[in-house]
Hints:
Elements: E1 26-29, H1 35-45, E2 51-54, H2 57-63, H3 66-78, E3 82-85, H4 87-95, H5 99-108, E4 113-116, H6 127-137, E5 141-146, H7 157-170, E6 174-177, H8 179-188, H9 192-200, E7 205-208, H10 215-226, E8 232-236, H11 240-248
Helix pairs in contact: 1-3, 4-5, 7-9
Amino acid sequence: MRKHLPAFDFLARPSRSVKPRKRGLTVTSDKAKSLADTASLIETAGDIVDHMKIPDHVGVMWRYSAALLKKKNALYAKAGIDTLPGGIPFEVAAVQGKVPQFMARVAELGFKGVEVSEDSIDLEPGGRVYAIRHALANGLTVFTELGKKFPDKPLNAEEAIEMANRDLEAGTHLVVVEKSDVALVIKQGSDTLHRLMRGVGSENLIIECGPGADRFDIAKWLIREFGPDVNLENIDAEDAYIIEAMRHGMHRAVDYNYFHAWRGKRVPRIPSP
Length: 273
C-alpha cells in the first residue's frame, strides 16, 4: 500500500476513514486475475480495498492449483487485504456434504475469510450455524448472506433481522445482503434495508451493489440513503476507484455532489500570479 504523502497534500479531503476500518468497507472482486494483474491492482488500489472476493467459482474449485491460490492470497495479505472465495463454492460443498473439508481447505489455501450463503440452496435446520462454527474453528472470518439470487418474493425485514442477529451471535463478522434483493427493495420503494440497518446495525451489514449494469445506480442509492461510509460489496476490482470517488462525491455517477455545498456561494478569489 502507498505510504507516501499525497501529491496534492494541501487540498482538504472529505472525511473518510482509513484502513483498517469497520465502516465504509469496500469489498471488491478479483475475476480471473493473473498474479501480475494482482500486483498491479495492489499498486494502484490496494489502499482503498478492504477485502477481496475471488468469485471465479470454477477456477477456485477446479482450474487453479493450490500453489497459485496460495501465491495470490499471499500477495493480498502482504498488502493488508483479506481474501475470501465467493459463496458458490461453499454451497457446492454443502450439497455434496463436505463442509468441514471445505473450510479446512479454504484456510489451508491462505484465504482469511469465507462466505456462508444460501442464495441458491436451502440448508438443513441448524446447518447455517454449524457451517459458521466450522469456519471459526479453522480461523476464518465469516461472512454470511441474506437473500436469494433469484428471489420469488421480497426480503422479509423481520425474518432477515432475526437471521442476521443469529448469525452474529454465532460469530459471523459481517452479514451480506444479496444484490438481487437490494435491487428489488429499490424497485419497490420499500424500507426493508432501512429496517435492517436499524435492527442489525450498519457496522454489521455489507450491501452488494453488483454485479450488473445497474451497479453504480445501486451504489448511488445506497450512498445517498446510508451515507458514504456504507459497507459495499461485489464491486469489480477495476471499479474500486469509482466507488471511492462516489464516496467522496467526486464522480459523475453521484452528480459530483461534492460541489453542491458551494452552490450560490462565492468561490475564493484567485490571486494574480
